[in-house]
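STRUCTURE REQUEST FORM
Protein name: Sugar kinase
Source organism: Micromonospora globispora
Requested output: structure tokens
Priority: standard
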Amino acid sequence: MRVAAVIGVDIGTSSSKGVLVDLGGRVIGSCTRHHEVDRPRPGWVEMDAEIWWQEFVGITRELLAPGEADVVAVGVSGMGPCVLLTDADGVPLRPSILYGIDTRSTGQIARLNERFGENAIMQRCGSALSTQSAGAKIAWVADTEPHLFARARRLFMPSSWLAFKLTGEYVLDQHSASQCTPLYDTENLTWYLPWAKEIAPELVLPPLRWAGEVAGSVTAEAASLTGLRVGTPVITGTIDAWSEAISVGAQGVGDLMLMYGTTMFLVNTVPNRLTSPSLWGTVGALPGTRNLAAGMATSGAITGWLRDLFGSPDYPELLRLAELSGPGAGGLLMLPYFAGERTPIMDPHARGVIAGLTVSHTRGDLYRAALEATGLGVRHNIETMQAAGGDIRRVVAVGGGTQGKLWTQVVSDITGRAQDIPSQTIGASYGGAFLAAQVVTDVSIEAWNAIREIREPRPELAADYEELYALYRELYTGSKNIAHGLAARQERLTAETPPLAQRKARTEGVAP
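Status: completed
Returned output:
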């Protein structure tokens, strides 16, 4: 007998993931489509939005193929904040500029800070301008691609793009809007038109809804492509990290969600509006909630880079070798700033550092150092959250990195904090499915996704990691100027894209 179910699809940095879930929270099916972002220049990270839609269509058809379920609602989420500009008909004008890992807008950040005032922006928008700010990226397009920008009429992010393609409705959720600094007023939960009209006078900003509110229903055209029924409700959706927090019930005051993915993300639910120059003060995904949020520019991206560098051994083998390496990684220390860094240092020109290398170090040592670098970065962000007024009472882990025990154990050991590990750590797609289920029935995340284990810190390692953390903080300070100089050299070296043969020679050792 066919069961009533919901679909949740999330567009991530390295893949799109979909789940088919019955109304009791049981996962009936799941599938993934892997993709790569485009990096045309250092600091530029883009993606063609058509890939998002093609992957959504493929995922949905695959999930529906067994014919076991009647889909009664659809959930969507995606990486963000991103900037996808389209014309008045919703046709993309250029690839989407991705979130804070894209650092091209530093000039616009400086200009907008001078124009509106750093303090005024912080007070109105909840966050300082940074490479995470969608408004600064919009300003970059206006400044550097004026002929294209003159045709721009609509702003989308991955979740709102999927909702638009499915329903024809042009909407954005409140949380995503709150990361469009300086276009949004976090006090009054609305677009701040005086600044928005100055930065993008012809852009029609989308009407705002909450993540779980219905954006619209599946159109006949979308139904023919996806296999969904005409009229199926589609939620508005939100940014992936906030959907992840929903998926594990990390919505109470004092909850901190740790998202283990291509990047590491932290979302702390706070009792009232808080601001910090080193974090993002945002509106929550659900009505009445407020957050302090933090995000590292890389985490799983470094482990993936190492895997490829080592000749693509599988992750279980690398985790085994890292376990053998032991705490401290044989005397290695890594700064995880391989794509600049977002919070708390807000330094797009930071670069990765591996200190202490000798000819005796192994793959396991390097991989362990990468895991520990993530833990050290998490601790730095947690301390910054506490200094800004955040009250962290419970930590909940989610994402692909929770599947192996070692990574979460390392983070607990370094931070000294236990982590709740829920039964389902699929993440954002599961959170979108849950919000979709709430549209059609009365469900609770506690019933859907109970905690299955708790990762406790090991107190015998506290002193060693305290020493390593002090060295970690000192290493950035001591290497900052060198990193900035190297970043400037990288910019100069790639100001003009080299011919394909030269790129292959550089990356693969192939003679041009």
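Reviewer notes: The chain is about 40% helix and 20% strand. The mean pLDDT is 94.
Form closed.
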